[in-house]
């Protein structure tokens, strides 16, 4: 994100969006009752009975709600109009700003926190736009998910009866072909609407290899170079979560946020088993640890920041500031990911400590 101007007196920060990570950062910084100004389009009805026409204009709104839409590359900010062209808008009416990559906007806050300004200016160390499909597959069962740097969702679960070995091989082969064709159909549909960087086939036994052979020889898919195979214990969602934790996968894509976060979570739980004194959980423990310079890594879920009340924001600011002073690393994790959900289960705030204090 490019910071164009900071007016501390007015509490205004002007920025230009450069990539999807910037939109996600803004999603976690903009809060209710902030003011946002940007160029937009609004439908204006000039003649009674007509549908009206969309006119470009510059509007400032008071923020009421906001949502991140990663697959359409936009941040939607809804609120009431405070400023705009008198001829075309009624102040106090609602409008939604669709903020996209390349756009400029001004954010006005009553008080900017130091970590908010820092997060606006810091470039992301992760691959900007990473989309991965994981297919966990075993005999007659396939679970398919779409995982990105910002979210994880199950696309489909496919169940088909595959005759046992006592049946004729032709019947078994036909059942497998129909099963594979259905999984391939789901893959193809998602490849049409999403720019997929990696396809992971995983599961127990040899079914994943047979499916890969089907894709190469029968379906003759054009995306073979994007496919990697891994062992997993099942063709269920748990097999997919197992793969997200895989060190082997993290090494292949070392700059992908979700894969690095998955490894970090495993490190927390391993440390918790071996040396629980080096793991702090919750505001009270971590507040004291940060004041003592003991926090090596801080993990917090985005929902803890987004929409937080003033007192909680100030407390988070103090903890983050203390961690940064002691050269600690801060991880802000998406609640839409299994990794963020595991931190949420621990109270949304977890720290790995350098030493017992």
Write the layout of secondary structure elements.
Layout: E1 2-7, E2 12-16, H1 20-27, E3 35-44, E4 53-69, E5 74-83, E6 94-100, E7 104-108, H2 114-121, E8 131-138, E9 141-148, E10 152-159, H3 169-193, E11 198-203, H4 207-217, E12 227-231, H5 237-244, H6 247-252, H7 257-274, E13 279-281, H8 282-291, E14 295-301, H9 302-305, H10 310-325, E15 329-333, H11 338-345, E16 349-353
Parallel strand pairs: 8-11, 11-12, 14-15
Antiparallel strand pairs: 1-2, 2-7, 3-4, 3-7, 4-5, 5-6, 8-9, 9-10, 13-16, 14-16
Helix pairs in contact: 7-11, 8-10
Please provide the count of β strands. Answer: 16
β content, as a range? 25-35%
Average pLDDT, rounded to a whole number, is 89
The chain-level structural class is: alpha+beta
CATH class of the largest domain: Alpha Beta
Would you identify the CATH architecture of the largest domain? 2-Layer Sandwich
Low-confidence stretches: none
Major β-sheet annotation: 7 strands, antiparallel
CATH topology of the largest domain: Nucleotidyltransferase, domain 5
Integer tally of domains: 3
List the total number of helices.
Answer: 11
> Order of strands side by side in the largest beta sheet?
1-2-7-3-4-5-6
Q: Overview of this structure, please?
A:
By secondary structure, the chain is α+β, with helices and mostly antiparallel strands. The protein folds into three domains: 2-121, Roll (SH3 type barrels); 131-252, 2-Layer Sandwich (Nucleotidyltransferase, domain 5); 265-353, Ribosomal protein L30/S12 (60s Ribosomal Protein L30, Chain: A, 2-Layer Sandwich). Helix content is 34%, strand content 32%. A seven-stranded antiparallel beta sheet has the order 1-2-7-3-4-5-6. The chain has a five-stranded mixed beta sheet with strand order 10-9-8-11-12, with helices on both faces. A four-stranded mixed beta sheet has the order 13-16-14-15, with helices on both faces. Strand 11 (198-203), helix 4 and strand 12 form a beta-alpha-beta unit. The longest helix has 25 residues, at 169-193. The two termini are 38 Å apart. The model has no long low-confidence stretch (mean pLDDT 89).
């Amino acid at each position: 994100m490019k910071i164009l101007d900071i007016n501390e007196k007015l509490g205004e920060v002007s920025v230009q969006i450069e990539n999807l990570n910037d939109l996600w950062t803004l999603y976690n910084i903009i809060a209710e009752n902030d003011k946002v100004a940007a160029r937009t389009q609004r439908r204006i009805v000039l003649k009674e009975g007509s549908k009206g026409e969309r006119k470009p204009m510059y509007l400032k709104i008071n923020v009421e709600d906001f949502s991140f839409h990663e697959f359409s590359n936009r941040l939607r900010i809804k609120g009431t109009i405070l400023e705009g062209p008198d001829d075309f808008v009624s102040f106090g009416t609602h409008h939604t700003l669709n903020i996209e990559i390349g756009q400029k906007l001004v954010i006005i806050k009553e008080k900017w926190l130091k970590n908010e300004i820092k997060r606006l200016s810091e470039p992301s160390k992760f691959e900007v736009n990473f989309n991965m499909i994981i297919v966990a597959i075993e005999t007659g069962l396939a679970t398919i998910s779409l995982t990105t740097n910002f979210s994880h969702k199950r696309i489909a679960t496919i169940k088909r009866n595959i005759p046992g070995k006592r049946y004729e091989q032709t019947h078994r082969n036909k059942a497998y072909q129909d099963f594979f064709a259905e999984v391939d159909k789901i893959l193809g549909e998602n490849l049409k609407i999403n720019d997929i960087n990696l396809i992971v086939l995983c599961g127990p036994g040899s079914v994943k290899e047979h499916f890969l052979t089907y894709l190469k020889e029968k379906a003759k898919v054009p995306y073979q170079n994007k496919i990697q195979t891994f062992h997993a214990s099942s063709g269920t969602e748990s097999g997919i979560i197992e793969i997200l934790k895989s060190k082997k996968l993290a090494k292949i894509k070392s700059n992908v946020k979700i894969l690095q976060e998955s490894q970090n979570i495993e490190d927390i739980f391993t440390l918790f088993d071996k040396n629980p004194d080096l793991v702090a959980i919750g505001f009270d423990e971590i507040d004291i640890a940060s004041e003592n310079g003991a926090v090596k890594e801080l993990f917090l879920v985005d929902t803890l920041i987004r929409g937080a009340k003033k007192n909680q924001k100030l407390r988070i600011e103090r903890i983050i500031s203390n961690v940064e002073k002691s050269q600690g690393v801060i991880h802000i994790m998406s609640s839409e990911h299994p990794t963020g959900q595991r931190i949420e289960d621990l109270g949304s705030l977890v720290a790995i400590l350098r030493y017992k204090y």
